């Protein structure tokens, strides 16, 4: 069976693969443009994207806005493919980053870590303010059919706007998870089980709006065989992140990539993040120290996430993730997906995409 393309409105990705957005600084213009050049949808992560700006501590909002704009423009210089941006609802400067992504003409905004109820308003207001029609697609990330249905109703009622697609993210994903800790290993919340009802919701929405509302499945998707099974379930594409980290084009330090290569399945752990959500990461000394109550006193300079209780948290997660991205894993940790133990070498995005295509064609 030939590998189908992924269509979101007037956008067509020859490979039905969305590279998941990974912050802080793991997926920037380098990785995103490489994926887009291979026919997938490359995604820049908006979380604390302004970390290298010299004024980030004085003006985190301005630093993040400047950096997001620059990364989108840099990606555009490297590819004619599809470039998306992942902007978490929980980010303090969510609205400002969304407007920046729209004005800089990102092709798609993917948004989760909360329900992005205001996305269409921000798009419509930006169009009105700039006296210009922007064609950025709006794709919410959900973890249930109920969330997809509620969001679609709200968008239609208040803005007459239907989601351009949905990403359904299961509990095997890396980073912050949209599930309670008790649900993470519950078979009832497995990706295959939560994606089917969302596909049914999307079909109903298609009848309502008269156009396709594709469903993209993510969280624990690693191989072409995984992709084939999910497309057979009615999905139009998949979201993958972990497999793209150990590539030459990934924007992280090589020591971060080596942590993926060296990770064993038993090294994967669930943490209690300072932002109030469980997260999946590679176990290391930093995580162990935090569990033992060894706090890392800090002065909050970034104010990056609304849900972070700065008075009670044992460490600054933005700083920890930034340190890890730079390769200093003694002062931070690496988020990862459940399949990180399958990574055995640093390769290239081209080789990953070719392998996915071959695995898809050989799967039964």
Q: Mean of the pLDDT scores?
A: 92
**Cα shape:** globular
What portion of the residues fall into strands of 2 or more residues? Answer: 5-15%
Structural Rg: 19 Å
The major beta sheet can be summarized as: 8 strands, parallel
- The total beta strand count reads 13
Order of helices and strands: EEEHEHEHEHEHEEHEHEHHEEHHH
Helix content: 25-40%
Number of helices: 12
Low-confidence stretches: none
Alpha-beta classification: alpha/beta
How far is it from the N-terminal to the C-terminal residue, by CA?
10 Å
In spatial order, strands of the major sheet run: 3-11-10-8-7-6-5-4
What do you see in this structure?
With 364 residues, the chain is an alpha/beta fold. 37% of the residues lie in helices and 15% in strands. It contains 12 helices and 13 strands. The strands form 3 sheets. Strands 3-11-10-8-7-6-5-4 form an 8-stranded parallel β-sheet. The protein has a 3-stranded antiparallel β-sheet with strand order 9-13-12, with no helix packed on it. A two-stranded antiparallel sheet has the order 1-2. Helix 3 (94-103) packs across helix 4. It starts with 5 loop residues before the first strand and ends with a helix. The mean pLDDT is 92.
């Amino acid at each position: 069976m030939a590998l189908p393309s992924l269509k979101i409105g007037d956008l067509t990705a020859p490979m039905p693969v969305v590279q998941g957005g990974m912050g802080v600084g793991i997926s920037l213009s380098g990785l995103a443009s490489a994926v887009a050049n291979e026919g997938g949808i490359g995604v820049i992560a908006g979380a604390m994207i302004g970390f290298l700006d010299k004024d980030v501590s004085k003006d985190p909002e301005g630093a993040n806005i400047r950096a997001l704009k620059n990364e989108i423009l840099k990606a555009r210089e490297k590819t004619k493919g599809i470039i998306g941006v992942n902007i978490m609802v929980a980010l303090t400067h969510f609205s400002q980053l969304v407007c920046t992504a729209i004005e800089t003409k990102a092709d798609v905004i993917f948004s989760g870590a909360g329900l992005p109820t205001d996305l269409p308003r921000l798009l419509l207001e930006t169009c009105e303010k700039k006296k210009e029609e922007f064609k950025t697609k709006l794709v919410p990330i959900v973890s249930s059919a109920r969330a997809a249905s509620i969001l679609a109703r709200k968008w239609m009622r208040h803005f007459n706007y239907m989601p351009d697609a949905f990403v359904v993210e299961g509990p095997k994903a890396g980073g912050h998870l949209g599930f309670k800790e008790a649900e993470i290993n519950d078979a009832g919340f497995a990706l295959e089980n939560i994606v089917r009802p969302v596909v049914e919701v999307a079909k109903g929405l298609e009848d309502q709006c008269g156009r396709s509302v594709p469903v993209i499945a993510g969280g624990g998707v690693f191989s072409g065989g995984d992709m084939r099974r999910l497309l057979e379930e009615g999905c139009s594409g998949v979201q993958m992140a972990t497999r793209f980290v150990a590539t030459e084009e990934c924007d992280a330090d090589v020591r971060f990539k080596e942590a993926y290569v060296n990770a064993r399945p038993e090294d994967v752990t669930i943490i209690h993040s300072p932002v109030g959500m469980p997260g999946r990461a590679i176990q290391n000394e930093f995580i162990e120290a935090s569990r033992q109550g060894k706090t890392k006193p800090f002065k909050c300079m970034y104010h990056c996430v609304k849900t972070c209780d700065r008075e009670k948290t044992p460490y600054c997660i933005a700083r920890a993730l930034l340190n890890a991205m730079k390769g200093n894993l003694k002062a931070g940790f690496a988020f990862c997906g459940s399949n990180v133990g399958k990574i055995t070498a640093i390769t290239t995005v081209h080789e990953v995409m070719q392998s996915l295509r071959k695995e898809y064609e050989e799967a039964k």
